[in-house]
């Protein structure tokens, strides 16, 4: 039976803690304590609530390992905190402890909590955050190189740029036919060298992501039956959604992924706006690169895409197709069924590459 209720307002270097007993009275208050030290006092008779923030899931795991019950609060939906006029660490901790006591003892109202992903999902999300960072750095370096060339009136073809960016030949050789100042050539050589290093790091990280997604291998092998969906793309989708069963509808999942447009409804008139940016955007970013192959390989999708592109533009047509593809992947995961227009030869090739990557990673770990 739970007899103590802890509200923790956690910060990087200290935490403020309010503890209530079964009668709702505050029996302990710690203004600036170490959360590590506070964990030693927890047991099965304790319930803890803390706000969702960076590192909250780590501490939630630690709290649950001590035998206590832990709730991770969504601060944006917890009106007692967001609407409070007297917002201090002391007041927040006491408000959370009181709300937890009311929820568990009287049951008058619930507390809004966030989804707590598994360790595998959290690891993949951290890896993909670095993967996206490397992608941004690659774009910045490519843009910087092209800007320096354009300033000197040099416009390279896509083939020349590919050789320059991938390092198939030296920068001096690639630009030998243009009369560029030596200082500009040197600056481009430095940026091209950085670009090659970032590309190598990105490829290495992509392999690491595939390896860490091994607990999700069954779902990944199901999703790669879709043309254009690679093991990396499937891992990104699974890392974003976590547990597919927690979404009651397709629209709810698409809203979580930032694929549903804003709706303005007033005076009997309804108008759709742009998609919301306050959402997880990993799936949207990754699928933007692979949606065209899925569209071309699926009957009627190409026709729908072309028709929508002519009416609304390529951007909205692309988002519409990504939304449709996510709906297909959701149905495949829920029903455990393969893609209807499966290309068996392509699927088997992707499976062999995926399993070979896993096997090579295991061998490297055993050798180390």
Q: Report the structural category.
A: alpha/beta
Widest beta sheet: strand line-up: 3-2-1-4-5
Strand runs, count: 7
Q: Please give the share of residues in helix.
A: 55-70%
Description of the structure:
This protein is α/β, with parallel strands linked by helices and 368 residues long. It folds into three domains: 4-106, YqgF/RNase H-like domain (Nucleotidyltransferase, domain 5, 2-Layer Sandwich), CATH 3.30.420.140; 119-212; 215-264 and 272-352, no CATH class. It has 15 helices and seven strands. It has helices at residues 35-39, 56-65, 79-82, 89-106, 119-151, 158-166, 171-174, 182-212, 217-223, 231-241, 250-256, 282-297, 301-312, 314-335, 344-367, and strands at residues 4-10, 15-20, 26-33, 46-51, 69-73, 261-266, 269-275. Helix 8 (182-212) packs across helix 15, helix 12 packs across helix 14 and helix 13 (301-312) runs antiparallel to helix 14 (314-335). The longest helix has 33 residues, at 119-151. The mean pLDDT is 87.
């Amino acid at each position: 039976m739970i007899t103590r209720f802890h509200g923790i307002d956690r910060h990087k270097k200290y935490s403020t803690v309010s503890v209530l007993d079964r009668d709702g009275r505050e029996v302990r208050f710690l203004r600036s304590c170490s959360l590590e030290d506070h964990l030693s006092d927890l047991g099965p008779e304790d319930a803890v609530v803390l706000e969702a923030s960076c590192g909250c899931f780590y501490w939630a795991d630690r709290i649950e390992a001590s035998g206590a019950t832990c709730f991770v609060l969504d601060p944006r939906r917890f009106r007692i905190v967001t609407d409070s006029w007297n917002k201090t660490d002391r007041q927040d901790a006491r408000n959370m402890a009181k709300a937890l006591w009311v929820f568990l003892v009287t049951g008058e109202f619930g507390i809004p909590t966030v989804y707590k992903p598994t360790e595998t999902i959290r690891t993949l999300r951290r890896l993909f955050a670095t993967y996206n960072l490397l992608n941004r750095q690659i774009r910045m370096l490519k843009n910087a190189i092209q800007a320096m060339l354009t300033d000197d009136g040099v416009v390279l073809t896509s083939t020349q740029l590919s050789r320059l960016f991938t390092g198939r030949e030296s920068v001096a050789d690639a630009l030998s036919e243009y009369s560029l100042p030596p200082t500009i050539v040197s600056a481009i050589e430095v940026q091209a060298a950085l670009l090659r290093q970032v590309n190598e790091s990105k490829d290495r990280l992509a392999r690491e992501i595939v390896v860490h997604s091994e607990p999700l291998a069954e779902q990944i092998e199901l999703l790669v039956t879709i043309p254009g969906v690679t093991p990396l793309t499937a891992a990104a989708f699974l890392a974003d959604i976590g547990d597919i069963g927690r979404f009651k509808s397709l629209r709810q999942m698409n809203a979580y992924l930032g694929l549903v447009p804003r709706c303005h409804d007033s005076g009997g008139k309804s108008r759709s706006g742009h998609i919301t940016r306050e959402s997880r955007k990993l799936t949207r970013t990754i699928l933007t690169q692979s949606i065209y192959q899925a569209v071309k390989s699926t009957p009627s999708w190409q026709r729908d895409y072309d028709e929508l592109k002519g009416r609304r533009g390529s951007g909205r047509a692309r988002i519409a197709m990504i939304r449709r593809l996510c709906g297909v992947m959701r149905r495949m995961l829920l029903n455990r069924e393969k893609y209807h227009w499966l290309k068996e030869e392509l699927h088997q090739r992707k499976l062999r590459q995926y399993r070979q990557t896993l096997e090579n990673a295991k061998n490297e770990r055993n050798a180390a």
